[in-house]
Design goal:
TIM Barrel, 12 helices, two-stranded parallel ribbon, 10 strands, globular
Length: about 300
């Protein structure tokens, strides 16, 4: 099947600028990976250079290596695993965060189903190292499902990040072949429900469009997420990383993304919804989160205190 021609609204500006170059060099100096680079995120330059907002730029650090034990049909991260964890990584990430001067940090990881505990303790330690250096930094984590094991998810909760995200990725009908068979719709909902049930930490998830889903399925997914009391949702266009990945079924027009944002925020009452063809789960995560709280009349400092409700 030949690739669909990308419409004009999907043109990507190549990353550039002093801020972008500086962050990239800092990451290399600390031997760190970002999902921004590994997954070829189209917003890399924009997010890394986003120093004009009170929340600063956003860089998403990818923990536990650059090879994932799962093989999802949409993802450009290499499949592999088996390498031992770097015990210095939590401190190296915290040092890089301080050197870059980020006020809002996003952490994610590859899936490491091959490890005892699937790396949950390593993930939690990284959160603690960042908070130990500066407790005012807001930390968002985008976690694996840890195969639904509640004790492992609880390790992340106990580390007290400010936002816990886990992506449901797509509607229930096409979870496979979009996701690895070890992932699943109900399992992802259960992860998010556990965070809501056991903490006051904000929860977040992401949905890709253009994979063959129907509108009523997207609405049902949004409804299921709100029933699970998920606070934040993002919607973006699936883009095929290579010819070996899933084909794009449709390039969804920006106006439809606007409609889904209105449905999510005005009808279903999510705290906020970032929705657009180029939006990804960590897109402008810091400024959008802070802005959503500030819209309710709070200052940046109040927003930070609100986000740390679980640690009070």
């Amino acid at each position: 099947m030949s690739r669909r021609r990308k419409p004009d609204w999907l043109k990507i500006q190549p990353p550039a600028g002093r801020e972008f170059t500086g962050i990239k060099q800092t990451l290399r100096d600390h031997d760190l990976h970002t999902v921004c680079e590994e997954a070829n995120c189209p917003n890399l330059g924009e997010c890394w250079s986003g120093r004009n907002s009170e929340a600063g730029g956003t860089a998403t650090f990818m923990l536990m290596g650059d090879h994932c034990t799962r093989n999802c049909g949409f993802c450009d991260v290499a499949t592999g695993g088996g390498e031992p964890l770097d015990p210095d990584e939590p401190e190296n990430v915290a040092s890089a965060v301080a050197e870059i001067g980020l006020d809002y940090v996003v952490l994610t990881s590859v899936d490491r189903d091959d490890l005892d505990g699937m790396g949950a303790a390593h993930f939690a330690q990284t959160i603690r190292e960042i908070k130990k250096r500066d407790s005012s930094i807001l930390v968002e984590v985008l976690i694996p499902d840890f195969q639904g094991e509640a004790d492992l998810i609880r390790k992340i909760i106990d580390a007290q990040p400010d936002v816990i995200a886990h992506n449901i990725e797509t509607v229930e009908r096409i979870q496979q072949p979009v996701r690895d068979p070890r992932a699943g719709y109900e399992q992802s909902l259960q992860v998010l429900e556990q965070v809501e049930r056991e903490s006051d930490i904000y929860t977040k998830t992401s949905i890709m469009l253009g994979l063959g889903e129907y509108d009523h399925e997207v609405y049902q997914t949004l409804s299921d997420l709100r029933e699970a009391e998920v606070d934040i949702v993002t919607l973006g266009q699936y883009l095929q990383p290579s010819r070996t990945h899933l084909d794009v079924d449709e390039y969804v027009h920006p106006s439809k993304f606007d409609t889904w944002r209105d449905v999510a925020e005005d009808e279903l009452d999510f705290l906020y919804c970032a929705s657009g063809p180029m939006v990804r789960s960590s897109y402008k995560a810091g400024e959008l989160f802070v802005d959503a709280v500030v819209r309710d009349g709070k200052s940046i400092e109040q927003a930070r205190r609100e986000a740390r409700r679980a640690s009070v």
